[in-house]
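User: Hey, quick favor. My workstation is busy. Could you predict this chain's structure for me?
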Amino acid sequence: MFSKQKIILPLLCTVFLTACGGGGSGNSNNSTGKPETKPETKPETKPETKPETKPETKPETKPETKPETKVEYITLKGNARAYGNVLDNIKLNVTAKCVNGAGFEADVVSDLYGSWSGEVDRKQLPCKLKVVSVKDTYYSYVSDKDVFVNVNPITTLVVALASQQKSEDWFNSKYIFTPMDLNKANEVIKQELIKKGYVLDKDLNLITNDMGSNASYYTVLEKLEEAIHGVTGFKDYSDLVDLIAKGQVDAIPLIPEDYARLKINYQACAGEQYLGSTKILTHCSSGLLPDFKSKKLRQKDKQVCEIQKTGDLLSIKSGQVNYQVKINQQENDKITDGYPVMNTLLLAEGNQRVEILFQYDLLVMVAAYHVDSKGGQIDLISCDGIYTR
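Assistant: No problem, here it is.
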């Protein structure tokens, strides 16, 4: 019994220790006697990482910069002239329109003598030129930096003929002249002016010869203005330009007649009287004036006034009205006494009255009328040369 207890006790202890996990023994062998085996651990392997690849970058390219081109300005110069009086020719604005639509680098205005100058980009030649005055607009053209350029009523006729367009339409268009275009038009206009009695130098270029230093050119401009205002075929200067653009160069009017230049013989008057401080010679004979005939003067409606003296009879006719008076030593045949600039001849015949104004020795104005029963003026005609201005 005792021996059984000795055998059972160690077995219980063994079982107990096994259930408790082997106690605190540091022996690495377990109860089975086999060595403890730990699960095989493989070294930790990180996923293979490829080096980060950045998108391929091309070297930065800057836009190609062309070297800055400097604008080369050249100076154009010339003369501007407008129809009208002196005030109409002061400070005329000159406008340029070149190949790219650009114009003068700054505003261009003519001086008191019509001279002007302005700068444009040399590469933009040729340029169209325009001058606007109180009454009209004028045009010209420049294709070379070394030439003088006129802008006036005659250059406008040349441009109109060369372009065959209304002037403003031509200026706003991209139409460019060849040298042959302008030279041909210049010659046609010049020859027509000469044909109509205007005096021009044979080799004159109407666009490029300085008008200010050419007396014949300046005179033709004045005479043409006078002729334009005197004709009845068209209303004004712009109408003439439109006709020329249609090729009708024969529309250029004939040169007007000069003022009648009369040598006044004050010794032909026998009496004298005073009107205030004005001395008047009376009882003048037909020897006061030489015989003459003039169609120079006109009424405001452009009707010609025909003035003629033959012997002692002086007649004035315009339209349907005709006056006739005699210079025959009557008291009412009188004239102011030789004043330096202006003198007036007064004539009367019945109820007809005639007044003639002389500037120096030029006949510049005539008026004629009837006197009614109350002393008033009726059937008045007034003829002068003021229509030219």
